[in-house]
Design a protein that fits this description.
Helices cover 22% and strands 28% of the residues. The chain has one domain: Metallo-beta-lactamase, Chain A (4-Layer Sandwich). The chain is built from seven helices and 14 strands. The structure holds zinc ion (ZN). Residues 55, 92, 94-95, 183, 207, 230 line the site of zinc ion.
Amino acid sequence: MTLTRRQLLQSGAAAAAGLGFGMFAPPARARQTALTGDRYPADGAEIIVHPVTHASLVLGTPAGIVYADPVGGADPYSGLPRPDLVLITHEHSDHYDADTLQALVGDETRIIANPAVLAMLPAALKDRASSLANGENTTFGPMRIDAIPAYNLTPDRLKFHPKGRDNGYVLSVAGQRIYIAGDTEDIPEMRALEGIDLAFVPMNLPYTMDVAQAASAVAEFQPKVVYPYHYGKSDLDEFERRLTAATNATRVVRGNWY
Ligand SMILES: [Zn+2]
């Protein structure tokens, strides 16, 4: 089923009214622009995946439009609906940029970040932001948000993403579970994930992990679909070869990230 923006908005608001909506009000503003992208059916709705660049993506969900790690200024987002929710995984410049946030957020936009990024947000943005630490969760309309750890394991990479600071996120809405891994290696918390429908997994050295680590981890938690993202010049053919040799349960989708 294809929903218009208004129907998505109404379905999210109706679900929120029925379920209670936690700490955030549901989006109340009509949107002018339809989100294009890869469409996945969800209970009574759909999830739309719109890769933007590298680690930045936009999701259409029954809870509203979600931007993850928007950077690069307003231009990459022209023609896209404004965000109802912005998720920020960590402070590096390919994930967090205050100028981009200030250009993109609307009156109703909420921001959820890891605690380190919350502390560095400009005041005007901090007013609309909350933090989630590793292991914490919250809701946004009908969507549950779990903060998943994201960190390096390899000794000479520990300096990039120390354990406990940065987030990945699992979004649960309309029967779908979406994992945005952030910058991480193949940590036990990733391997232990269950019931993931869509996963966004990084693979680039030296900052995250190599394709062998990524394929091994994805084969273990077996999302229905995996989008390699944040991969730079990594060999996605090798990733896919290793993954499909290990499991038939996960489909690889290559987005237009670069
Ligand atoms: Zn990064």
